Amino acid sequence: MDLTKTFDDRKTKLNKVLRPDSHIIYQYDFGDGWYHQIVVENIETIEDESWGESRVLDGARACPPEDVGGPPGYEVFLTTLRDNPDSEEATHYRQWVGPGFDSERFDIRAANAALMRLATNRWGNR
């Protein structure tokens, strides 16, 4: 795979550009500059499901809040909550993200439910 080439995600099927042991760099939110490295461990054909199945096998930590300001903004967010939890800024952050936000928590069930919603919305009813 040519790592200098970009692909339109609306027109490109992953099985046309990825192979086992390959990876892609995915940029999410061009304004904030989030980059994710996605490693392909294996590609399987699933005979009993015409649309296939994707699933998250593992992960770590919660997703950063939307529009937190990219990696630098998220660092400030976490540092403020950790080091100055009683500050006005920390109070504002907690109100913004809502109750129960835990940066260390990874919810694999929620991640897989999100993938299922994407598959259903894109290809019709399961």
Automatic annotation (TrEMBL):
Pfam families: PRiA4_ORF3 (PF07929). SUPFAM superfamilies: MM3350-like. It comes from the Bacteria. Residues 4-109 form the Plasmid pRiA4b Orf3-like domain. Gene3D superfamilies: MM3350-like. InterPro entries: MM3350-like_sf, Plasmid_pRiA4b_Orf3-like. PANTHER family: LEXA REPRESSOR-RELATED, TNPR PROTEIN. This is Transposase. It comes from Pandoraea horticolens.
